[in-house]
Input
Amino acid sequence: MLDAAIKALSQMISPPMRSILWRSVGLALVLITVLAIGLQRLLSWFATSGEVWLEGLLGPGWHTSLEVLSWIVSIAAGLGVVFGGVFLMPAITSLVASLFVDDVADIVEREHYPAEQPGLALPFSQAIFEGIKTALLTILVYLIALPLVLFAGAGFLIFFLAAAWLLGREYFELAAMRFRSPKEAKAMRRDNAATIFTAGLFIAAFVSIPIVNLATPIFGMAFMVHMHKRLSGPRPELIEPARQMR
Output
């Protein structure tokens, strides 16, 4: 696993990968800026007018709970774009990864596995769907864990473990679906859940590093291509024939 991570890191700055790296970083910067500003505006609205609106919708019995939530949101809104950037980075990188999955995987497979049958490109709609699904799920998990971050340090650990599970899950399935049907890719991920979660810890650590985390889609995808190869074994006959009919 460490060898796979080192190979992914070293290949990130190789000439064939640089163009993808800069496109990925540029897109991530645009998305993170736009969404972070949007999140800050939303939090500011909730901290002022949103609490009253929700109390009118839910009833006076929710007054105390909504006051606490409003206080939490006020703190988050005060942190502004910085908070939004940190909070949304794993979700953004999930979405960006779905756009570059095949570009990265093709380069890794050609350089490190030239004797094996290359994977087939995922349909664009399927890749985007997987990226959006993971991004939304990441935001949902982080929103649930947010109060724990403000009240107890355990929340940061929850963030980290959630990122490891979510990002490891997405990147591995994207790599596996180049060779297997979505159903088989998900089944393989479940059968190797502990290994993939451990690999996800590497990606979670990477996405936790400011600035460097903009390159998470490249590192995560390259890393999981290696992990899928290791878990599959060098056996071309394992590649599902029906996958080629798509």
